[in-house]
Design goal:
alpha+beta, EC 1.-.-.-
């Protein structure tokens, strides 16, 4: 796929089914992630991959995090099923490194770029994906259960798989509507 075509036709795929990316595809997806701009070469990221039994484990961590906030059984059941919406979920984490010239925000942005690069790579490989965040990304119980440090931050959950349906290409937007020149 041509790079410009990829950038102009990329879309989220909210309905994903098996198969998940295979080992070679996953390696390509992760390799794309670590090629993004990374000031000072800090590698401020971690990618926690869940598939197979890992999806149920991630679901239980979601339940624990939700329960710690006082959620009801209905919400907890929903949390348990959230990772099952795709055959693979990658929890994308910013692991901020103290650096005099690279503030935490810049590192978070680099990890956001890594998340987008993974989704773009999946799309280029004929797969689908959707980047989700939500309250769980900021839930400190989930962070603790995932073994994250206090200054780590979940940037998102990248759901990957095969699109269940072919989504229509979104209408083209005009960049001129959001640009101004000095």
């Amino acid at each position: 796929m041509d790079a410009i075509e990829l950038l102009l036709t990329r879309q989220s795929s909210p309905r994903l089914v098996a198969p998940a990316p295979n080992a070679e595809q996953l390696n390509t997806i992760l390799s794309a992630a670590i090629r993004v701009p990374d000031h000072a070469g800090l590698n401020p990221w971690e990618f926690i991959v869940a598939s197979g039994d890992g999806l149920a484990k991630l679901g239980q961590l979601f339940v624990n995090a939700s329960a710690a906030e006082g959620s009801d059984e209905s919400t907890q059941a929903k949390m348990a099923n959230m990772p099952q919406r795709a055959p693979m979920v990658i929890t994308v984490v910013a692991k901020v490194v103290e650096h005099a010239k690279v503030p935490a925000l810049e590192q978070h942005l680099a990890v956001g770029c890594a998340c987008m690069a993974m989704q773009q790579a999946a799309f280029a490989l004929g797969l689908g994906g959707i980047w989700r965040t939500g309250g769980l990304a900021f839930n400190r119980v989930l962070h603790k259960d995932l073994g994250l440090r206090d200054n780590d931050q979940i940037i998102g959950f990248l759901y990957l798989g095969t699109p269940a349906v072919t989504a229509p290409i979104k209408p083209t937007k005009l960049a001129t509507d959001v640009v101004r020149y000095l």
